[in-house]
Amino acid sequence: MDAGIAAEPQVESLFDPVSCTFTHVVHAGAGSACAIVDPVLDFDPKSGRVSHASARRVVEVVERLSLRVAWILETHAHADHLSAASWLRDRLGGRIAMGASICAVQQVFAKVFNLGPAFPTDGSQFDHLFEPGETFRIGDLQAVVMHVPGHTPADCAYRIGDAVFVGDTLFPPDVGTARCDFPGGDAAMLYRSIRALLDLPARTRLFMCHDYPPGGRAPCPVSTVEAQREGNIHVRDGVAEPAFVAMREQRDATLAMPVLILPSIQVNIRAGALPAAEDNGVRYLKLPIDAL
Predict the structure, then answer these.
(1) Tell me, what's the pLDDT at 44?
(2) In this structure, how many other beta carbons lie within 10 angstroms of the beta carbon of residue 163?
(3) What is the bridge-based pairing of β-strands 49-51 and 68-73?
(4) DSSP-H helix ranges across the chain
(5) Which residues, other chains included, contact 140 with Cβ-Cβ below 8 Å and sequence gap of 6+?
(6) Alpha-carbon distance 53 to 66, whole Å?
(7) Strand order in the sheet with 40-44
(8) Which domains does the chain have, with CATH numbers?
(9) Which tens digits make up the pLDDT trace of 238-250?
(10) Which among 193, 108, 117, 100 has a CA at the least distance from the CA of 151?
(11) Can you say whether the dihedral through the CA atoms of 56, 271, 100, 292 is positive or negative?
């Protein structure tokens, strides 16, 4: 283990059954600094209403353990849920951060949503943009950023001691891997990113961003490198890159767009901030026709 990195950070994992998303709070014990990974803002697409039940569960964890929020970390610009990063920063503090490649994602979707020249595509909505391999601290914990593109160009994983928060690179072994058909996605790139994760020590804990439990099992927030190498249905040891790419591209061609992709991307490229209210005091999200 790298010098100065705590071997086993503590992790509180919260599951949102609507978007099948895990939010993680990683810390070194009660009273320590913490990071919040991939927080969820509840959104009802039928009414256009936002609510904060999922985010309030995070607040409850932070307050119960007397934690100090140092970072709010996004693994990528999610297409299946809105981010609660901005709402949580306003209440708990911390810096919102994700990978510097978010700028490429902003440039693509600024055109899709016709956001105009007033919308910056330099990532300045975030408090910090990580470069690949960058290290940072969460109090006494040291973390390193792994750039793991493929699902999107801007995916990051955060390695903190023996724990890695993998975003959408991997799902639990019986679910497999994420789609690669969003703008800038690339199945071959995802395969290489996954292999970089699976080259870590066998007992490394891999914390999921999503689970879609088959067979009625309970949602599982964590796997290991060893379990993934032995049993991932898409990318276990012995599955070569060409076979993975062929499987992924064939499977992706059958998938519908996520229900919340259009509202979520508009919010998530703004670091979880909602669009500014218009002159009638109402905020609006755009619905582009035939754009995806």
Answers:
(1) 96
(2) 23
(3) unpaired
(4) 53-64, 85-92, 102-112, 187-198, 225-231, 241-252, 261-268
(5) 6, 28, 32, 33
(6) 20
(7) 49-51, 40-44, 82-83
(8) 10-267 (3.60.15.10)
(9) 999 999 999 999 9
(10) 193
(11) positive
